[in-house]
Design a protein that fits this description.
It is a single chain. By secondary structure, the protein is of the alpha+beta class. The protein contains three helices and eleven strands, in the order βαββββββαββββα. Strands 1, 2, 3, 4, 5, 8, 10 and 11 form an eight-stranded antiparallel sheet that branches. Strands 6-7-9 form a three-stranded mixed sheet, with no helix packed on it. Strand 6 and strand 7 form a beta hairpin. It is globular and about 50 Å long.
């Protein structure tokens, strides 16, 4: 199973989308993703749909070899009928597995927040933001080095079942997807790391 960083943004007082509105927004989604500059023009995007959401997937870049460190990367955007907009991304990882880096994680979350805003779909003034990590058992809290893989990793959660997610306990303004992204990202990243079994 792939470990993914997930970011979910839901507008408050959203009536959601009709099937026609969701279809229209879904068709515009690849172009909106391209317009953000987050994905290179030569990378192919693929669209999919279900009854409840439209999605655009971005293929993960292939590392040169199995032990080549790989920075975090956006791999999917989902727009739900409810109005929720979710992004999924690979965490930075090396041959020892995905890394929750206390310095890199806030930057990656802030980048996803700004990307969500740049899609120009959510325009309501109040939103709720939550983050999570799927399949977190192979993650470790460490420093990501893009130049070399670690030789050891402390997988405190290996063989244990635990969840890494924040509770969307308060709303924030739309500025969280723009100028306020760093502040919100710092809060979310701290909360995720604090829930990890090996957190100090």
């Amino acid at each position: 199973m792939t470990t993914l960083l997930e970011l979910h943004v839901l507008p408050l007082d959203s009536a959601g989308y009709s099937a026609r509105e969701l279809e229209a927004l879904g068709q515009s989604l690849p172009g909106r993703v391209r317009a953000t500059g987050m994905v290179e023009d030569d990378i192919p995007l693929s669209s999919s749909r279900s009854q409840g959401h439209m999605a655009v997937s971005v293929p993960a870049s292939r590392p040169r070899s199995w032990d080549t460190p790989r920075p975090g990367q956006l791999i999917e955007v989902r727009l739900y009928k409810t109005g929720q907009l979710s992004t999924r991304a690979l965490l930075p990882q090396d041959s020892m597995g995905p890394i929750l880096d206390p310095n890199a994680l806030p930057k990656q979350i802030a980048e996803l927040l700004k990307f969500t805003g740049a899609l120009d779909i959510i325009r309501q003034d109040r939103i709720v933001v939550a983050a999570g990590v799927s399949e977190p058992a192979m993650t470790s809290i460490d420093t990501f080095d893009p130049r070399q893989s670690r030789r050891t990793a402390r997988l405190a959660g290996f063989g244990r079942s635990f969840a890494l997610r924040t509770e969307p306990d308060e709303s924030v303004t739309l500025a969280a997807l723009q100028a306020g992204a760093e502040e919100v990202a710092e809060h979310l990243a701290r909360a995720l790391i604090a829930h990890h079994p090996s957190a100090p």
